[in-house]
């Protein structure tokens, strides 16, 4: 990676006449400073209309549990008339719940985000609740989908295609100033068990609208003179999503997560330290045949300093993502490792949930210091000068 000036970043291949991947046709090195990855646009979406009639007027609600979210069960329901199957999520009505539903609704036009069909405000057991009707994701979680392949090879090119799908969801969110902040394996679901099923992102319980100091996210400021806390909300919340992309990509390519000493066996007390120090490796045999481009991309996603992490535009413009047809079809160890370590997979997911929670708290605790507490060198010098003048003033 080469720095251009103080802000811009571009990727230099060792020799621009050499292919980016083994067996790749010769082509010009990508320019990550060009316009954002195309084709991409934010689709217009109608304002959210919350219905007040009983949900049972329009849907048959069953007791079949499709899954468990952070706020309770997700039930199977059927639309009356068409008989189409959907998923029902229930939230107790409050400002936080309405914000979650509103942000998810805004993101629904993206083809890689689970779509909200209807939202109802109904009473349930005497309490006002929001009932969210969503498309039904029958294909299960991302890594379960890969586990279920059995002996069928899972290749690096397939991993690239999956990461591109997740990247498109994040690109859409970041373009409309939403940080998801909870991107983890159980929130990535397939529409069906079919080979052509779409992968989609769900659960906006921790999503956040980025509104503070948006203008500072553009390249017009002078980085040396902007404190991290001024860049704070947007930079840190979006970088949390990029870290998650790095962890998921790492698991896709080998079957176990970074920051662990053994395959999937988490050492909880040390996990936070390993994340903060960026302590991870690419051990053999799982990584011996993985391309250097993939490893390079992971390194830029798992930067310990949030402001140094790749942006979603840089991610989508990386050759491993936008030239996926050139990514080698190397068979990976992923499905075998996932099957062997099934018994510790729940623990792995819990550790990622814990890490994301820590990040959200850390970023939200960034505060601008008061003048009294500031250690600004110029201010310290002025204080010393003022104190000296005060002590030397006659009659005091």
TrEMBL record:
Gene Ontology MF terms: ATP binding; protein serine/threonine kinase activity
Signal peptide: none
EC number: 2.7.11.1
InterPro entries for this protein: Kinase-like_dom_sf, MAPKAPK_C, Prot_kinase_dom, Protein_kinase_ATP_BS, Ser/Thr_kinase_AS
Catalytic function, reaction form: L-threonyl-[protein] + ATP = O-phospho-L-threonyl-[protein] + ADP + H(+); L-seryl-[protein] + ATP = O-phospho-L-seryl-[protein] + ADP + H(+)
Keywords in alphabetical order: ATP-binding, Kinase, Nucleotide-binding, Phosphoprotein, Serine/threonine-protein kinase, Transferase
Sequence ranges of Low complexity compositional bias: 15-29
Region of interest (Disordered), residue spans: 1-29
UniProt keyword Phosphoprotein present: yes
Pfam families, alphabetized: Pkinase (PF00069)
Ligand binding (ATP): 89
Stored PROSITE patterns: PROTEIN_KINASE_ATP, PROTEIN_KINASE_DOM, PROTEIN_KINASE_ST
Top-tier EC class: transferase
Source species, domain of life: Eukaryota
Domain Protein kinase: 60-321
Family, as annotated: Belongs to the protein kinase superfamily. CAMK Ser/Thr protein kinase family.
Protein name per the record: non-specific serine/threonine protein kinase
Organism ancestry: Eukaryota, Metazoa, Chordata, Craniata, Vertebrata
